[in-house]
């Protein structure tokens, strides 16, 4: 799995929303939310390219950046890695933690129930 820092993940999220984008477009979006210098953002673009998380094509004097990995693929690998590291691969303690702390909304609970029903139906087929 491609390892990205929290800051690099922000760059990836900008590109998952819309791509390709020039470095200047990415800088403009990130500077709206963060007090990051343009050079810092360009360094992150370079690192993400070196990590094969981003690809780019040259268009005149600009580079157009695109994600080399999908957001869904990244989420799947990152969440699996997270659960493995913190909960020895068991999802139940993670969900139990959120439930015990009252951090599951009614919508979360409904969606979890529906997911469990769907999984149980698959097992009975």
The fraction of residues in strands falls at 5-15%
Query: pLDDT average, as an integer?
Result: 93
Poorly predicted regions are none
**SSE ordering:** HEHHEEHHH
User: Helical region count?
Assistant: 6
Gyration radius, in Å: 19 Å
State the total count of DSSP E strands: 3
Tell the overall outline.
elongated
Widest β-sheet, arrangement of strands:
1-3-2
Briefly note the structural class of the backbone.
mainly alpha
Distance between the termini: 33 Å
Strand count, sense and closure of the main sheet? Answer: 3 strands, antiparallel
- Fraction of helical residues: 55-70%
Short characterization:
This protein is mainly α and 125 residues long.
Write up what this structure looks like.
With 125 residues, the chain is mainly alpha-helical. It is 65% helix and 11% strand. The protein has helices at residues 6-17, 23-33, 38-50, 71-87, 92-100, 106-124; strands at residues 21-22, 54-59, 62-67. Helix 2 crosses helix 3 (38-50). The radius of gyration is 19 Å and the shape is elongated.
Features:
65% helix; mainly alpha; 125 residues; 6 helices; 11% strand; three-stranded antiparallel β-sheet
């Amino acid at each position: 799995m491609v390892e990205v820092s929290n800051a690099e993940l922000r760059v990836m999220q900008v590109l998952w929303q819309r791509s390709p984008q020039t470095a200047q477009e990415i800088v403009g979006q990130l500077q709206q939310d963060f007090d990051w210098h343009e050079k810092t953002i360009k360094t992150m673009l370079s690192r993400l390219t070196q990590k094969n998380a981003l690809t780019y094509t040259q268009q005149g004097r600009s580079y157009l950046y695109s994600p080399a990995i999908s957001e869904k693929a990244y989420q799947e690998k990152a969440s699996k890695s997270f659960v493995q590291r913190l909960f020895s691969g068991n999802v139940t303690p993670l969900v139990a933690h959120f439930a015990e702390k009252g951090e599951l909304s009614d919508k979360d609970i409904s969606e979890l129930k529906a997911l469990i029903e769907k999984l149980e139906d698959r097992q009975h087929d």
